[in-house]
Structure formats: C-alpha cells, structure tokens
Design goal:
The chain is built from 5 helices and no strands. It is an all-alpha fold. The protein starts with a helix and ends with a helix. The C terminus is likely disordered. This is Centrosomal protein of 128 kDa.
Amino acid sequence: MDGVCPRLARSHTFSRIASSRVSRAVKARAATAGPNLLEKTHMKDEEMRGLQDRISDLETSTRLALDHLESVPEKLSLLENFKDLEESQRQREVVEERYARYKDIVGDLQHQLEESKRRIQDYRDEKMDAASRSIRLAALSSSIRGQGNFLSSSLLSDSASPHKRFASPELDSSLLEDQSLSLNGIKPLSTAQ
C-alpha cells in the first residue's frame, strides 16, 4: 500500500513539470503569434491548473480510500465478532428454552413418582387391613365353631337327660341367649362379669 502513494506523488510531480514546460512553450509561441494566441494560451493555463487541482483531489481521495481499505479488515473482524455474539445469544436462548421444557418434564415426573408412592402406600395399608381383618375373621370363625361344637354337645347331653332339661327352663333360655350372643360376636353378660 505504501508503494502506491509514492507513485502518486511521482506522477503528480511529473505532471507539474510537464505542465510548466508546456506552459512555457505555449507562451513562447503566443508571443510570436499575437494577441489571439495569447488568450488561448491563457485559457490553456487555466485548464491546466484546473486539471492539476483535480489530480490533487484525486490523490487525496485515493489516500483516503487506501486508509479506508487498511481499516476494512479491522471492521470485518469486528463484524465477525458481532455475528459470533449474535449466534452465541441465539444458542443461549435455545438452551434456555430446552432447560425450561426439561424442568417442566422433570416436575411432571416427580409429581407422578410421588403419586405412585402414595398409591403403593395406600395399597400396602389396604393389604395390611385386609390381612388383619382376615386374621380376626379366622379367629372369630374358629371361636364360633368351638362354641357351636360346645352347644351341640351340650344340647345332645341335655336331650339325653330329659329331667335335667326341664329342671330349670330359665337356665336353658339364658344359655341359649348367651350362645346366640357369642355367635354374633357380643360377649354375654354372665361371662363378662
């Protein structure tokens, strides 16, 4: 880039030298040719100055353009960094959206787990209640069978001795009442005392 500016400076110097030589030659001819030629020479000099000013402006704008071109890579680097930042921000938003969805899923799964644990505990409680009821019913059933056997044997023994049966009808009715109450799971008054 530095090689371009010296070239422009050399070309600018060359154009000034050339224009001054041309100007002298034109003035020399004009002096010999007359007033009309002198005016033409003067106009040519004005044109030459205008062209030199344009060349100077072009050199200045060329230098500015070169300076701008030198700063373009830095600007491109900044632009790339900005694009990288935008991409990072977009990826961050995607990750945050995924995190929110996963958090909701985990919350639902935890709720389902708690609900399953509660159902399992309810099932275990019901199973324990059923087992304890079954044990109570089995005990009650064996108790009823035992009392039923006792009743049968006492009724058989009572029917074998008829005088004993008629000896105390109140006693027989209270015995029957006690046995029917114990069959229903209620303790008779005579045994409770």
